[in-house]
Specification:
alpha+beta; 8 helices
């Protein structure tokens, strides 16, 4: 979920997710309560569910509302905890830029073949515990295919980057830049090249591109269990901004 939807928006969003419904073969809706929507309560969420015939609702709400989980169960729902998202932000221009190296480079990814994008995403995200994998109703293979499809569509933007080591692509970053914010949407390094400091070079390239486009901050999010990624962000200078719980709701039978 994007920064604007989850952090800065001031109103709850709710509605069917046609992409998820088509991919998984059952009716899925999404309900998101942003951090800034301080006047939204659980009854507002229940009102959104009331006349919605979906089979599953993917609900995200601020972690500060930690009492909602038990209350949803009391209200007659099957509630499955699907981890939480943490959101991080960096003031553009303040990052701890790594020293340049001769054997690594970052280049625009807009012309990357679809097959290469699929390979990089499949490798970098192998075993990544997204919220779909917490729920046996969702096929993990279809969830990964969704990441690949998302990357193929989003990579056409001018903000997306490839990381090359010794001339070979080993990582990518899908991002988008708005009026004042550049958001890293999907990115990583293939398993064989992880732990070597290459990821910091992608972060540096994203920050440079953000400054060039006039953005004042760079933001990103990940599942809370992804401590490796969050340590990398912290080393570079990012700070945690928000935390959102993800649950899957079904009506109790």
């Amino acid at each position: 979920m994007s920064w604007s939807e989850v952090v800065t928006a001031t109103a709850m969003s709710a509605g069917p997710s046609q992409v998820d419904t088509d991919r998984f073969g059952f009716r899925v809706s999404r309900i998101t309560v942003p951090s800034a929507a301080t006047d939204v309560n659980l009854d507002d969420v229940l009102d959104a569910v009331h006349d919605d015939p979906s089979d599953v609702w993917i609900l995200r709400y601020p972690a500060r509302q930690n009492a909602w989980f038990a209350e949803l169960m009391r209200r007659g729902f099957d509630v499955l905890f699907a981890d939480s998202l943490t959101y991080w932000a960096l003031e553009a221009g303040s990052g701890r830029t790594p020293q340049p190296v001769t054997n690594a480079s970052v280049s625009p990814a807009g012309e990357a073949p679809s097959g290469l994008v699929d390979e990089l995403v499949a490798d970098a995200f192998h075993g990544y515990g997204n919220h779909y994998t917490a729920d046996p109703l969702f096929d993990p293979a279809l969830a990964l295919a969704g990441y690949q499809d998302w990357a193929r569509r989003a990579i056409k933007s001018g903000d997306s980057l490839l990381l090359n080591v010794l001339g070979e692509p080993v990582g990518l970053m899908i991002s988008t830049t708005g009026t004042d914010t550049s958001e890293m949407l999907l990115g990583g390094v293939v398993a064989s090249q992880q732990g070597r400091g290459w990821y910091a070079h992608i972060l540096s390239a994203v920050e440079t591109a953000a400054l060039r486009k006039g953005a004042h901050r760079v933001v990103s999010s990940t599942q809370s269990h992804n401590t490796n990624g969050q340590r990398a962000w912290a080393r570079y200078g990012f700070e945690p901004i928000a935390s959102h719980i993800t649950v899957h709701l079904r009506r109790s039978t």
